[in-house]
């Protein structure tokens, strides 16, 4: 009782199945697109949430951060801040990519654009605020760094000036010509260093003016600058005085040395004159007379040295040298001995002159 099917029915059913399959494929493709769009949307929101969480974390860190209490802590915070700036740059690139995703979602118009736009606007505002806070914190760190560097340099300058003051206010002026010269050479080197530090002291006011208002207007820092200027003035003033004192000490020791040399000569001639007896023979008298002629030349030379000594003594006394009494006593002693030698020479010359007159008279007779 088999009855063959009409071929048209077969064709119709095949066409129907094919049509259903095509509709199913279209629905599947549409569903895939909707799911992909949904995945992109929720990926966008997830990345935005991560960005917001990262922003909130950095906002808390920046809100709790101080600018340090000294140079070391400021340098540490500055290093950490540079690390955070690197993280900020990386996060900025990621946020830029997420924003592009949001723009693509808005362009497709697959979902309501209100939530996406609101989220993008909110995150952009928070990001802008974070960058502003980061910039302000960086500026505060730079201001604090400049202030503590200024304070450290000022402290170093004060320490150097205090050491220099101890050196230039020393009461060691040497014990002889050689030691005084050595001290004077060292002191001149210190004076050169003091002069080199003048520029650093004069620049303190300019450096202070470049500090942030909150730092430069502090009473302590202004007082510190005034103290440094006053200390430098004292060092420079005492350095000038010590130069004069060392020069005076050197002049005194040189004067003592010159006095000693003159007195050695005076001792020698005084002993010779006291022991010398005026001869009665003409030949011997002429020999002694030639000796006195040589003695006159020596006395002229020594007289010049003694005059120089007297001039130096007068300068020291007029300058109020602390050893004025000792110097004056030394001068008086030398002058008295010199006068004694002059008297002896004149006495011996007078005796020689008398002998010569007698000898000449006898020759004429």
TrEMBL record:
SMART domains: SPEC. The keyword Repeat applies. It comes from Donacobius atricapilla. GO terms for molecular function: actin binding. Keywords: Actin-binding, Repeat. SUPFAM superfamilies: Spectrin repeat. This is SPTN4 protein. The lineage of its organism: Eukaryota, Metazoa, Chordata, Craniata, Vertebrata. The keyword Zinc does not apply.
């Amino acid at each position: 009782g088999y009855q063959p099917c009409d071929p048209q029915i077969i064709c119709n059913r095949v066409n129907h199945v094919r049509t259903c399959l095509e509709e199913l494929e279209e629905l599947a493709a549409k569903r895939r697109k909707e799911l992909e769009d949904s995945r992109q949307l929720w990926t966008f929101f997830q990345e935005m949430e991560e960005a917001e969480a990262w922003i909130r974390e950095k906002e808390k860190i920046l809100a709790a951060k101080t600018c340090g209490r000294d140079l070391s802590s400021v340098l540490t915070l500055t290093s950490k801040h540079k690390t955070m700036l690197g993280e900020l740059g990386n996060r900025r690139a990621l946020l830029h990519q997420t924003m592009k995703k949001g723009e693509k979602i808005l362009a497709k118009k697959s979902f309501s654009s209100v939530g996406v736009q609101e989220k993008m606007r909110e995150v952009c505002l928070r990001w802008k605020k974070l960058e502003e806070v980061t910039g302000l914190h960086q500026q505060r760190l730079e201001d604090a760094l400049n202030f503590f560097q200024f304070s450290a340099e000022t402290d170093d300058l004060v320490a150097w000036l205090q050491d220099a003051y101890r050196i230039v206010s020393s009461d060691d002026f040497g014990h002889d010509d050689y030691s005084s010269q050595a001290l004077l050479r060292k002191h001149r080197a210190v004076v050169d260093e003091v002069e080199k530090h003048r520029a650093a002291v004069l620049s303190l006011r300019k450096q202070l003016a470049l500090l942030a208002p909150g730092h430069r207007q502090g009473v302590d820092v202004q007082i510190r600058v005034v103290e440094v200027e006053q200390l430098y003035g004292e060092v420079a003033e005492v350095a000038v005085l010590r130069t004069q004192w060392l020069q005076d000490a050197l002049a005194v020791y040189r004067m003592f040395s010159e006095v000693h040399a003159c007195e050695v000569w005076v001792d020698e001639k005084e002993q010779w004159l006291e022991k010398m007896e005026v001869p009665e023979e003409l030949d011997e008298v002429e020999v002694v007379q030639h000796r006195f002629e040589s003695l006159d030349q020596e006395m002229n030379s020594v007289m010049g040295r003694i005059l120089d000594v007297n001039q130096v003594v007068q300068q020291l006394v007029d300058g109020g040298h602390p050893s004025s009494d000792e110097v004056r006593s030394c001068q008086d002693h030398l002058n008295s001995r010199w006068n004694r030698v002059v008297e002896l020479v004149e006495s011996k010359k007078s005796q020689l002159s008398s002998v010569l007159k007698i000898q000449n008279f006898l020759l004429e007779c």
